[in-house]
């Protein structure tokens, strides 16, 4: 019988995992119950899933995840109120069905922006009101900063139609609907890179100065065995904590490959690669433990290697193994490294 991750980290921070509704029963559910005390929906709470068409809400898959977490005494996170992916196109169509981004007439652009922000506000209020008593920690906006785009803001339909007002609207509506007890996060990947980190910092500071309610930064932390360095990850968190913000590791996994590596280890992963992954997980969790005062939780983006967004991505037909349990749901060397790093038996 192996130790429990969540128990090993009790008193330090919660350990979480992203799941699909189908994972709430069977062997994987047992694995989750043993090892995690925080749950997030991998897809079921994204805008396209919750409101596929205007005014038509689809709660059933999301509710199943909420019920699973509650039945097992696990905390929940919400992912995500706003994103440029997995969001219904209907948000961005004008009343005539034309894409708002194509509009050139200034008056119509103004009317479109107003309509988009109304739709956004309605989505946020409806969702937050439904789950506010069950979910404390909320990703309000996801991946809104992109240093390569104009102004360093991702040139999504949201931004092209409404500028940064959509971010402000989302946070304010979430706070109004959810009250002071829910925690509101801005979530992004690559937050360790100086360009991304600094642009997020600047944005958050600007919004906080305007009184926009932001409680923390979610660091997705999709990393690989090659990088980035652990010290760089921690450094960025320290920077945000100086603004009085909480840091959460929201989507942790560690690919075996460099991003565009064409190799595929398949089910035959070399020992030294698994060891390298374990060593890096060890170093990472030791740093998390040392910095527990600025880290509110660590959530994995999945639990076992048979179900991860990195299988077939970004390289087709390449299998990856970024998590702590293998395809048969057995503990990998990385699991034992993370247990060791908790430093309490
Ligand atoms: O639900 C449909 C199903 O009906 C259809 O048959 C099937 C065919 O491909 O697709 C299913 O939808 C897939 C969905 O996951 C649910 O499994 C989408 O194609 C697929 O694109 C989608 O991928 C998700 C991805 O976000 C979308 O961008 C991944 O599961 C999910 O892990 C990933 O999560 C994101 C975070 O939200 C944000 N940060 C990055 C992270 C990894 O990309």
TrEMBL record:
Protein origin, superkingdom: Bacteria
Enzyme's top EC category: hydrolase
Record field: catalytic activity: Endohydrolysis of (1->4)-beta-D-xylosidic linkages in xylans
Catalytic site: 251 (nucleophile)
GO molecular function, one term: endo-1,4-beta-xylanase activity
EC number assigned by the record: 3.2.1.8
Pathway(s) annotated for this protein in UniProt: Glycan degradation; xylan degradation
Keyword Transmembrane: yes
Keywords, alphabetical: Carbohydrate metabolism, Glycosidase, Hydrolase, Membrane, Polysaccharide degradation, Transmembrane, Transmembrane helix, Xylan degradation
Biological process annotations from GO: xylan catabolic process
Residue stretches making up the GH10 domain: 1-341
UniProt key word rRNA-binding: no
Family stated for the protein in its record: Belongs to the glycosyl hydrolase 10 (cellulase F) family.
Protein name (database record): Beta-xylanase
Portion held of the full protein: 96 to 440 of 444
């Amino acid at each position: 019988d192996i130790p429990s991750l969540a128990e090993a980290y009790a008193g330090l921070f919660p350990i979480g995992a992203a799941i699909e509704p189908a994972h709430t029963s069977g062997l994987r559910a047992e694995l989750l119950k043993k090892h995690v005390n925080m749950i997030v929906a991998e897809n079921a709470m994204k805008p396209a899933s919750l409101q596929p068409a205007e005014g038509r809400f689809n709660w059933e898959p999301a509710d199943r995840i909420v019920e699973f977490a509650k039945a097992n005494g696990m905390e929940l996170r919400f992912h995500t109120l706003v994103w440029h992916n997995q969001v219904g196109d209907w948000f961005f169509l004008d009343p005539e069905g034309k894409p708002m981004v194509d509009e050139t007439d200034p008056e119509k652009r103004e009317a479109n922006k107003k309509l988009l922000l109304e739709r956004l506000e309605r989505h946020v209020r409806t969702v937050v009101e439904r789950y506010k008593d069950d979910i404390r920690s909320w990703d309000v906006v996801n991946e809104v900063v992109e240093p390569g785009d104009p102004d360093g803001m991702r040139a999504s339909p949201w931004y092209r139609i409404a500028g940064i007002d959509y971010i402000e609207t989302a946070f304010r509506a979430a706070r109004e609907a959810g009250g002071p007890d829910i925690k509101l996060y801005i979530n992004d990947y690559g937050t360790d890179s100086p360009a991304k980190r600094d642009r997020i910092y600047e944005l958050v500071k600007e919004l906080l100065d305007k009184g926009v309610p932001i409680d923390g930064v979610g660091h997705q932390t999709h990393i690989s065995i090659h990088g980035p360095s652990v010290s760089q990850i921690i450094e960025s968190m320290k920077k945000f904590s100086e603004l009085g913000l909480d840091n959460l590791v929201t989507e942790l996994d560690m690919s075996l490959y460099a991003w565009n590596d064409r190799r595929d280890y398949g089910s035959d992963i070399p020992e030294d690669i698994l060891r390298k992954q374990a060593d890096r997980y060890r170093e990472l969790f030791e740093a998390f433990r040392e910095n527990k005062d600025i880290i509110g939780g660590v959530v994995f983006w999945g639990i076992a290697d048979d179900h991860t967004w990195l299988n077939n991505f970004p390289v087709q037909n390449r299998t990856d193994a970024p998590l702590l349990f293998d395809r048969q749901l057995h503990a990998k060397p990385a699991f034992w490294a993370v247990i060791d790093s908790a430093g309490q038996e």
